[in-house]
Amino acid sequence: MPFSLDCLRQNFAVLASVSPEVACWLEAEADFAHCHQRAANLTPSPPHNNPLLERGLEVGGITVVVGGGLLDEVCQLIKCMPPGHQVFLLEPRAEVLALGLGRFAVEPHLAEGDLVLLAPSEAALEEALQRHPQLALAERLELITMASRDGRPLPEAARARLYRVLGQAVKARDMALNWEGPAGANLVRNLCHLAFMGRSLEMAGSLAGKPALLVEQGPSLGESLERLTGLVGGAALFCTDAALPTVLEAGILPTAVALTNPGQGPLWGFQHQALAATPLVAEEVAHASTVKAYPGPRFLCLGPRVTLPGHFSLLAPSFTPQHHCLARLAEVAALAGCQPLILVGADLCQEGGELNLPGMDGQPVVSSLEQAAAANGLGRVLARLGQGAINTSPRGLGLPGTRPGSLEDLLPILGGPGQPPRAAGLDQEAWLDAAGLAEVAQGLRLAAAGATRLWQRAAAPLLDFPRGQGQQAAALLTSADHLFVALAEQAAAEPLLSAFMGGCLVRAFRRRHRLLCNGRSQGITVDDACQELQRCLQDMESRAGELAVAMRQMADEFEELSQASRAGDREFLSSYARQTGHPALA
Question: Positive or negative CA dihedral for 548, 553, 556, 562?
């Protein structure tokens, strides 16, 4: 198609209304005035051999295209795809995308959402993901990288950012779907350990000014530990659960080990005499049986999902939800006041991975979407903290917010001979006082009340649906859909509800998305629509009801503990300590 400045302007006007961040980037980076000259040198794309048409296209599916900004292949795809299918396009080169927008009139597709353009910055990708949650939640997602027509390689950094941002969202989705029941049960069961975190506030700033080594089980870890053993007497060392056996085998006693996995992992059944002296930093949804059986001090990172008044409200802002230990370790080290943060063994690459991404040294490395997600989680934490980190794995995956560094050059700041220092608030457990226990009970009752309100609102609004009554039925369906959307948004916005009901929310989104797509492609009866919507609401009602009951039970437990503490009932407190895996405080 020939280039037209009018076509570019019309497309740009629609783009500015539906994706303002993309329009701003395009206007700043693309030289619209010289598009005509560049368009004269274009080679027409052959109509055949379109890689976007080689895969099956399904109703409600999503195709993510990297490159292809001249839009020849993308517009062919749009003509062929079924209703409800969407194309997301990331063309990192603004001048190429401007040429494409001047060649094809895609404003109807932009307005309808059939075509969604993405800008390459991380903030813009995050914003697009929030505006289009189906990008991460959809059941069928295809990612395709197009070859460049002008022979110039695509900017790898932009593609890596897309995989990191999308990878973290997909990881959160898969965790919500695959671990909904266990993660919710873990969250409730782990709350008992709050009773023994009476010294947790001491952790803030306890290692101020000391460097922190954040250790992961990557291919370079063994060689790195050989250099570090016996030379980290002044540096905190926080390691992941996967790296702990290797670290202990090297004769190093870590400052703490992190656990985020909701299922059985490397620590399950692992035995070592040094475990009793190694504090465990656990995610709220970490595998509850592993946390309970752990022989050392336990610190629950409260705040991302459960927010309580009083004692724990001071720690909550330091933590965000994490699925990978590296990001969790960075937050813990920052809370302790450590600086700089030094990554060891954080290669985040693997043979047989599905992605080729830029490494720390600029050379491509083979990685996976899950490892890209871990990199993004770490990058988000570093950006939130406003600090960078030093990555000592030069051949590993490029990590945002980090710069390469040599262990040899860093040895002088690690403090010399000895073991890593202990962190106050982590190295020893203590009972909360009676007032602190009562505050936990109060917070859990508030959480139970919030869950109760949600399930009461979701409870069977369509039981009396007047089947086959035309306009009245359609009006009721619209009303129920509005209620469902409002409840889903409420649950997604409240961390505890979102954590406990994550899988339910993903399923509900998919049901409703499928409903809308099928309605566009083949039509759907009001009865069928109401039936699907009813399933969504019943699922939400069930999960919210479970959460309300669990929170009330835990609130009762902490109220009893508070009363026993005030009354000096040592027998009751000792029994509770033994039952929950804290015999040292019995």
Answer: negative
Taken in order 81, 87, 92, 93, is the CA torsion positive or negative?
Answer: positive
Helix (H/G/I), strand (E/B), else coil: 544: helix
Low-confidence ranges of the chain (pLDDT < 70): 37, 39-48, 149-153, 458-474, 476-477, 519-524
Q: Which residues pair with 64 in a beta bridge?
A: 88, 143
**Residue 421 maps to a domain:** no
Which CATH number does the domain housing residue 25 bear? 3.40.50
DSSP 337-389: T--SEEEES-----TT-SEEEEBTTSSEEEE-HHHHHHHHHHHHHHHHHT--E
Q: For residues 368 and 370, give the distance between their C-alpha atoms in angstroms, rounded to a whole number.
A: 5
- Do 392 and 508 have their domain in common? no
Give the DSSP per-residue string, 178-213: HSHHHHHHHHHHHGGGGGGBTTGGGGTTTTTT--EE
Kindly state the helix (H) or strand (E) to which residue 391 belongs, with its residue range.
strand 389-391
Dihedrals phi, psi of 466, to nearest 5 degrees: -80, 90
pLDDT tens across 471-523, in order? 666 676 677 777 777 878 888 888 888 888 888 888 888 887 777 777 666 66
The β-bridge partners of 239 are: 215, 257
DSSP states along 422-456: P-TTTS--B---HHHHHHHHHHHHHHHHHHHHHHH
Sign of CA dihedral 517, 519, 523, 526: positive
- Phi, psi at residue 133, to the nearest 5°? -60, -20
pTM of the full predicted structure? 0.89
Quote the CA–CA distance of 378 and 328 in Å, as a whole number: 8
Going through 14-160 in order, the beta strands assigned E by DSSP cover 62-66, 86-90, 115-118, 141-145
240 forms bridges with which residues in the sheet?
258
Whether 160 maps to a domain, the answer reads no
* Number of domains the chain contains: 3
Region label for 416, one of left (φ > 0), alpha (ψ between -120 and 50) or beta (otherwise): left
Task: Please check whether residues 88 and 9 belong to one and the same domain.
Answer: yes
Q: In this structure, are residues 414 and 235 in contact, taking their beta carbons and an 8 Å threshold?
A: yes
Sequence-separated (6 or more) residues with CB below 8 Å from residue 227: 407, 408, 411
Domain that residue 449 falls in: 434-585
Residue 321's alpha-carbon distances to 283, 317, 392, 402, in angstroms, are: 8, 11, 26, 21
Same domain, 359 and 394: yes
Give the pairing of strands 236-240 and 341-344: unpaired
Measured distance CA(486)–CA(505) in Å, rounded: 12
Is 170 a member of any domain? no
In angstroms, the CA 91 to CA 330 distance is: 33
Where is the domain boundary, 413, 447, 470? 413
Task: Let me know whether 322 and 396 are in one domain.
Answer: yes
